[in-house]
Specification:
single chain; alpha/beta; five-stranded mixed β-sheet; four-stranded mixed β-sheet; 17% strand; globular
């Protein structure tokens, strides 16, 4: 959106607040302004840009494609404005860990835990299109990325995190909406859309609403693009999808290891210092146990018997 540079930064901040909260009342409360004033500002922005920024009537609030585009541009403009206001950054700036995530992945929990444990390291979370997940890692635009499998793992390390249940998205008045879950048999006679392009899910859902055909998508995508005129039901015998955390294998840094620990639920006690202490401990190789010579008893008798037998054999050989 070329006009975004001319929009007042404060109005952009208000828009970003709604876009991140996806709730006008909560955003207005966080900003300390009236909800009506915030809604009026968004409407004025839509009129100024000639595009809808939020899906009309959607519950919960959902961004349109134009809204997502403006959100990206607005964040950049706000960041530049804040940088200009604070002046040049000091040379000894905080280290940064850049983590990308694809649609359907929610990172707020891990952001919060990271902020509590590693306030000296900035965590920058970057939303990415699913089609861009591998390129962002290869080009080092992100240090790590929550990806949707499968991906080409050459040169990458990847930790599978969880699997997503598939759901079928249907119009609200469709017969399938009466069930809590369905199988392939119930979908056999239905017209189905190719919903493999996760980045085009909003368009796919629009086609479902128009009666063009049903769509099977991961559960998180159905929630992300929820609409009042559509419902989704679990598909019991459709392949799951899997979310993993991936990073370039050659770039496995201490910060990356720390973030892996946060994501995998490692306790705060399992800190950098503890691992450093453990790695610093000297390791002593175990000495082989001395071989004991028989001194008596059955073992000694057996040994004497063997020597005696050997001596007799030699004598017979002569």
């Amino acid at each position: 959106m070329s006009q975004v540079e001319s929009i007042d930064v404060e109005r952009l901040r208000w828009f970003v607040a709604v876009a991140e909260e996806l709730h006008f009342a909560r955003a207005a409360k966080a900003l300390g302004i009236a909800r009506q004033r915030l809604s009026r500002t968004v409407i004025d922005l839509e009129d100024e840009l000639g595009a809808k920024l939020f899906v009309p009537g959607a519950q919960p609030t959902q961004l349109t494609d134009e809204g997502r585009e403006l959100l990206t541009s607005a964040r950049e403009v706000i960041a530049r404005a804040e940088a200009e206001a604070t002046g040049p950054e000091p040379e000894e700036d905080r280290p940064v860990l850049r983590v990308g995530f694809v649609p359907g992945v929610t990172v707020s929990k891990w952001e919060r835990i990271w902020g509590e444990r590693f306030s000296d390291v900035q965590l920058e979370t970057i939303p990415l299109a699913a089609a861009d997940q591998l390129t962002a890692l290869r080009d080092r635009r992100v240090d790590m990325c929550f990806v949707r499998l499968p991906i080409d793992r050459e040169g990458l390390s990847a930790i599978p995190l969880y699997r997503e249940v598939p759901v079928v998205v249907v119009p609200k008045n469709h017969p399938i909406s009466l069930f809590s879950e369905v199988g392939a048999a119930e979908l056999a006679d239905e017209r189905m859309q190719d919903a493999s392009d996760i980045d085009a899910a909003a368009v796919t859902f629009e086609m479902v609403a128009a009666g063009v055909g049903l769509a099977v998508v991961p559960h998180s995508i159905a929630r992300l693009h929820a609409r009042r005129d559509l419902v989704y039901r679990t598909v019991t015998d459709h392949p799951d999808t899997e979310i993993a955390l991936a990073w370039p294998a050659s770039e496995t840094t201490e910060l990356i290891e720390e973030f892996i620990g946060v994501v995998r639920g490692r306790s705060e006690r399992s800190s950098r210092a503890q691992r450093a202490d453990q790695s610093a401990k000297p390791t002593t190789a175990k000495k082989p146990a001395p071989q004991r010579k028989p001194t008596g008893g059955k073992g000694a008798s057996a040994a004497r018997g063997a020597r005696s037998s050997g001596a007799k054999s030699k004598r017979r050989g002569r």
